[in-house]
Amino acid sequence: MNPAQLLSVGFLILIGIGTLLLMLPFATKDRHHLSFLDALFEATSAVCVTGLVVVDTQSTFTVFGQIVLMVLIQVGGLGFMTIGVLIAIMLGKNIGLKGRLMIQESLNQLSVEGMVRLVKFVAGFTIIAETIGTLILTIRWSSDFGFPRSLYYGIFHSVSAFNNAGFDLMGEFRSVTEYAGDFTVIMTLSTLLIIGGIGYFVVLDMKRNRSLKKLSLHTKLVLMMTLILNFLGTVFIFALEFDNPGTLAHLPLKDKLLGAYFHGVVPRTAGFNSLNIGELTLGSQLVTMLLMFIGGGSGGTAGGIKVTTFVLIFLAVRGLIKEEDEVSLMGRSIPKDLIVKAFTITVYSIGFIFFILFILSITESAPLNILLFEVISAYGTVGMSMGLTPELSATGKGVIAFMMFAGRVGPITIAFALARRK
After folding, report:
1. What phi and psi, each to the nearest 5 degrees, are found at residue 108?
2. Are the beta carbons of 318 and 127 closer than 8 angstroms?
């Protein structure tokens, strides 16, 4: 099999293992195992670092079940190939060309050069980032839950945030709404998910090149678009929800700003929410869906079509309107094959989303805006929901589970995996 096929099959095997583990009687608190479909949905959501859930994580799963979810999130976020290469390195084995091609496909890189070094960096950086997040959250929650539980919560939520998964242990599908005005919790989670979402290559490039001028065009583009989208998301949510009694209206100004910032950041990466998603205005729903569709940086744990794809589409359209011969950015011309790839990914994604939306419009009874929100959230591996996920029919659960898998592995990767090619 080619790398794309192996990548797809690997994720399926990982989902299958997770499904079986979550169906064990001692994985759930009532000792009655989950149905196959519910376990499959939860495992898919964890492996694909999405965060959509059909059962409440805290009240349904035992510590064993929660740890299974956390391991699936970690392996799914890093990529099973990254884990496999790390094990091979520890065993003293050499990584051949096929293994490097797999890493390249898994981390969405353009070249096989330096893949082993990148894997080592990814592992080390992940450990450091999640450890720091764990320490901060443990200290903050120690007064609320006591030390053992706050440490466990700190580990779980740091892993979930850094890998952009959005799973939480707060119970009753509340996510972190009770911490909407808590600066420590909000800033820790948002920082972890931003760092995990911009992509490992960007972080490595920043580590190697401390000067802004020396950074690659890709890194500059991702950082610039992350700042712009986070700022615009915050401004739009603050303005649209300021007087909404279901979200920000009852909060003091400081907490309104913090809540708007968190909701402006989260849709592009992870499915945590500090505001009641079901109470958002239609304008905020549209802004959220657009951010979920765009997603984060390439090679990270975020989903969506990626900010680089979005910018290339924008530049290509602008160039077409201005009748320019080539697309350029920051004084550099963009190869036409990248423009074609960006258009292909975008058109493929839009078509895929509307096809799934059509199916759900037949099988589910929810309004169209709620269905569209659910579909884009699944495809962007975001995990936000307006309350529809637990109410999905059996067909709906299966369709959304497939959508999460497609969003994580990528429709283009799936197309290549199914196609016969030399």
Report:
1. 60, 50
2. no
Q: Beta partners for 384?
A: none
Instruction: Give tens-digit pLDDT for 108-151.
Output: 555 556 677 777 888 888 899 999 999 999 999 998 888 899 99
Residue 270 and residue 50: Cα distance in Å, rounded?
7
> How many residues belong to the chain?
422
Count CB neighbours of 147 within 10 A. 12
pLDDT value of position 422: 37
Is the separation of the CB atoms in 220 and 206 below 8 Å? no
Q: How far, rounded to the nearest angstrom, does the alpha carbon of residue 169 sit from its chain's CA centroid?
A: 18
169 and 385 Cβ atoms separated by less than 8 Å: no
Nearest-angstrom CA–CA distance, 217 and 378: 30
Q: In angstroms, rounded to a whole number, what is the distance separating the alpha carbons of residues 268 and 295?
A: 4
Cα–Cα distances in angstroms (integers) from residue 389 to residues 60, 139, 275, 289, 375, in the given order: 15, 33, 17, 16, 10
> Which of 274-296 are b and which e, b meaning 16 or more Cβ less than 10 Å from the residue's Cβ?
bbbbeebeeebbbbbbbbbbbbb
> Taking the complete model, does pTM exceed 0.90, yes or no?
no
Quickly list H helices, 199-335.
200-208, 217-241, 253-265, 282-294, 307-321
Beta pairing partners, 390: none
Residue pointed to by tokens 């794809």: 309
Is 61 in a helix, a strand, or coil? strand
State residue 61 phi and psi, 5-degree precision: -100, 145
The torsion region of residue 329 among left (phi > 0), alpha (psi -120 to 50) and beta comes to beta
pLDDT of residue 84: 66
Distance between CA atoms of 263 and 233, rounded to whole angstroms?
8
CB 75 within 8 Å of CB 47: yes
Q: What angle do CA 384, 390, 391 make, to 5 degrees?
A: 115
Q: In terms of DSSP H, where are the helices of 93-199?
A: 97-106, 115-145, 147-162, 183-198
- How many Cβ atoms are within 10 Å of 183's Cβ, its own excluded? 12
Q: Burial-class residue 53 by CB neighbours within 10 Å (0-12, 13-18, 19+).
A: buried
DSSP β-bridge partners for residue 61:
28
Give the confidence band of 212 by pLDDT, cuts at 50, 70, 90.
confident
Max distance between CA atoms of the chain, in angstroms, equals 66
